Amino acid sequence: xxxxxxxxxxxxxxxxxxxxxxxxxxxxxxxxxxxxxxxxxxxxxxxxxxxxxxxxxxxxxxxxxxxxxxxxxxxxxxxxxxxxxxxxxxxxxxxxxxxxxxxxxxxxxxxxxxxxxxxxxxxxxxxxxxxxxxxxxxxxxxxxxxxxxxxxxxxxxxxxxxxxxxxxxxxxxxxxxxxxxxxxxxxxxxxxxxxxxxxxxxxxxxxxxxxxxxxxxxxxxxxxxxxxxxxxxxxxxxxxxxxxxxxxxxxxxxxxxxxxxxxxxxxxxxxxxxxxxxxxxxxxxxxxxxxxxxxxxxxxxxxxxxxxxxxxxx
Amino acid sequence: xxxxxxxxxxxxxxxxxxxxxxxxxxxxxxxxxxxxxxxxxxxxxxxxxxxxxxxxxxxxxxxxxxxxxxxxxxxxxxxxxxxxxxxxxxxxxxxxxxxxxxxxxxxxxxxxxxxxxxxxxxxxxxxxxxxxxxxxxxxxxxxxxxxxxxxxxxxxxxxxxxxxxxxxxxxxxxxxxxxxxxxxxxxxxxxxxxxxxxxxxxxxxxxxxxxxxxxxxxxxxxxxxxxxxxxxxxxxxxxxxxxxxxxxxxxxxxxxxxxxxxxxxxxxxxxxxxxxxxxxxxxxxxxxxxxxxxxxxxxxxxxxx
Lengths: 314, 305
Prior knowledge:
The structure holds two protein chains of two kinds. Chain A has 16 helices and no strands. By secondary structure, chain A is an all-alpha fold. The longest helix of chain A has 35 residues. Chain A starts with a helix and ends in a 6-residue tail after the last helix. The mean pLDDT of chain A is 79. In chain B, a hairpin with a 2-residue loop joins β1 and β2. By secondary structure, chain B is mainly alpha-helical. About 3% of the residues of chain B have low confidence. Chains A and B meet through α2, α4, α5, α6 and α8 of A and α2, α5, α6, α7 and α8 of B.
């Protein structure tokens, strides 16, 4: 009995598939992790190890100098604080405004709400580059449809402050906000109507039903939106380099890191050793994504589970 | 809020009307943002694309010049045509690869095996790692480029692998275009893996909503795993193929050379009109692709209802 089971074709097929699957997953995991491992290995190398032919992964002269340099040049702790504040604020505001809009579109139908939802889809489809220039000029002389000049006599320049981020996330039109509205709408549509109706019968208003009944049920959607929004804001260079020209946030600091480094070394950027510049830049990238990886380690379970319950899948 | 509603006499309205009013209030923040940060800029950018824009300390003034900017973009600017075709060809090449690859990985990650949750968390890592500035910087990293070079020349097997594969497939008699496409995909595996994080998530979520009874029934009827995939999994997730396709297309906005060109035209050369015209051509090209692909795919999509 046992032997016949062991010899059966099915059994062998299963083992073969397990083996192929293992190879495939291990290989692709390596492909994904390779750049990170590479960066870690580069970051702890000494400058001389770069040219040493015997050093591939593990450095001969272990050093923390790269970290020290990168932290000093990027003004790391200050930048970290700025980036964290910025990302956390926009995440919170975006999640709040998108949840409101998503609930409005899902359950509180009014005349023309379908047309407006089509507009949400439109905002997802238009490349941000198309509307970048008018937004830039608009924020440079911000008038809020002519209200501000009436009050103060002149328009205000919102560039180089956090106001563009606050305003766009407050009004659910920040980076990829259309996608979040879509996620929330799909999710709220999936919650049974009866729960809501029971709340109305018990005398709760629309606001109270939303706050007490719908939001606690929508935690997976909130988590997904918050994670995406946090991560994308953290890494975003498109809006940050447009809105913030001199403020220190992670993505602007990263892109100007090689230049700043060569200034620090007292010379002209073209004369510096490009390998060394690249090495410090890799360390900088590692430092920039380190907080994200730490957060991911803690929330990844939630991340994987929540999107499965979010209802993007309809 | 209650006070205002009483003033309006809204508390006397029917349940339905009140709900509609609340719906409007809930959507209002978004609507303001939509008008202020989307609709007006979109129309302004359309106007800019037809005019010469002068921005100075007094403000912005524009004079109507018709299709001048569009003519400049296509005939005078040396880079635009090349980068536009590059961006579109890249998109057309990548979208099917990413969709098929992420569906395959999602199916594999849905099976039961030891270390599944660990493998999943690795495969979703690109969602975090490859967005925005990091991807741009990574492509310019010198140390990595050199290391890759060393790795390739160091081991003979590595360099020959896709070459061997190519020869093998050509001898079997597969058409040359397809062979080049596939081996190209193997060579760009990191790019494809790193761009398909969100897509894998979406497919995986979709596969998990398929009721297990379907699989049980098919197993009793004697279907193999292969048949179960094509007869159950594939039709059930086919609406998501559309979703993922659209997502992949809009995801490509954030990272290509054309976007960089549009930006530098605006912020380094201060030619806002030309830049707007380029952006509009790009937008129209993408809408065209979206329309065609949505039309083609949605005819094949199976809806459960």
